[in-house]
Amino acid sequence: MSDTLVVETKRLSRHFGRIKAVDGVDLGVRAGETYGLLGPNGSGKTTLIRLLVGLLKPTAGEARVLGRVMPNKEVLSVVGYMTQAEALYLDLTVWENLVFFGRIYGGASHSRLRELLELVELGQRADSVVATLSGGMRRRLSLACALVHNPVLLLLDEPTVGIDPQLRVTFWQHFYKLNEQGVTIIVSSHVMDEAEHCHRLGLMRDGRLLAEGSAEELRQGSGTSTLEEAFLAYIRGSGELG
Questions:
Q1: Of the candidates 136, 95, 132, which has an alpha carbon nearest to the alpha carbon of residue 113?
Q2: Which residues are CB-contacts of 155 (< 8 A; sequence separation ≥ 6)?
Q3: Most CB atoms closer than 10 Å: which of 27, 64, 98, 238?
Q4: Peptide linkage before 40 cis (omega within 30 of 0)
């Protein structure tokens, strides 16, 4: 992990009418780091990721990815994005989806696509139409599609929902390898156990970043023994609980 910032935000905000989905977030994520956005549904994690990838424009503040202010189309060629809802073509096969996304990003070798199919354990379902796959299989295919172009920044929105525990371990092992290769990963989750896999965490609530640090730092800083307790302690500290 280096000290180079791949992602940086300053007072980043996105409002939808009176709703402050993201509210003045200052964030810095280093190269080769896995940074976890942790918080309940509706806390602003997905909106923040969409701002980082350039799908939304900020109401105020700015987001920079690889030094470029987002939105920026050029940056997208080195960014992988796995959405919370599967962005797949249901009438195409698993293989056809992979080939399609590979071509969008400039082409991926046959061996690379096969490698990704094995990673997500869909090698035996390459010719299956996506509409016939289970929800968990579609999540796995979505991850493979996000990885086809060897991105330097990977944005994962709830990547392991519906994935069996054994395959979840495989995914995280692969994420570690990507970190070793210098790939930066931002992952959102509401599952506290998964947070332990991240180098650093940002606890989000109502669009704001309540606290940052490793899981251990957050527990120590709040004087608690679990992340669940730490999260509640930081909410109390922000004045949101009585």
A1: 95
A2: 49, 52, 53, 79, 80, 81, 82, 185, 186
A3: 98
A4: no
- C-alpha span between 22 and 82 (Å, rounded): 20
Element of type H or E holding 176: helix 165-180
Q: Give the closest residue to 147 by CA, choosing from 81, 95, 100.
A: 81
Distance, in Å, from the CA atom of 9 to the CA atom of 53, rounded to the nearest integer, reads: 12
d(C-alpha 57, C-alpha 80), whole Å: 19
Residues 6+ apart with CB under 8 A from 148: 98, 101, 102, 105, 108, 112, 113, 116
Distance of CA 130 to the CA centre of its chain: 23
Per-residue pLDDT of the chain (242 residues; tens, 9 = 90+): 668 999 999 999 999 999 999 999 999 999 999 999 999 889 999 999 999 999 999 999 999 999 999 999 999 989 999 998 888 999 999 999 999 999 988 778 899 999 999 999 999 999 999 999 998 899 899 999 999 999 999 999 988 877 788 888 888 999 999 999 999 999 998 877 788 899 999 999 999 999 999 999 999 999 999 998 998 999 887 645 43
Domains (ranges, CATH) in the chain? 5-237 (3.40.50.300)
For residues 161 and 175, what is the distance between their CA atoms, to the nearest angstrom?
Answer: 16
Could you tell me if 201 and 33 are in contact, meaning their C-beta atoms sit under 8 angstroms apart?
no
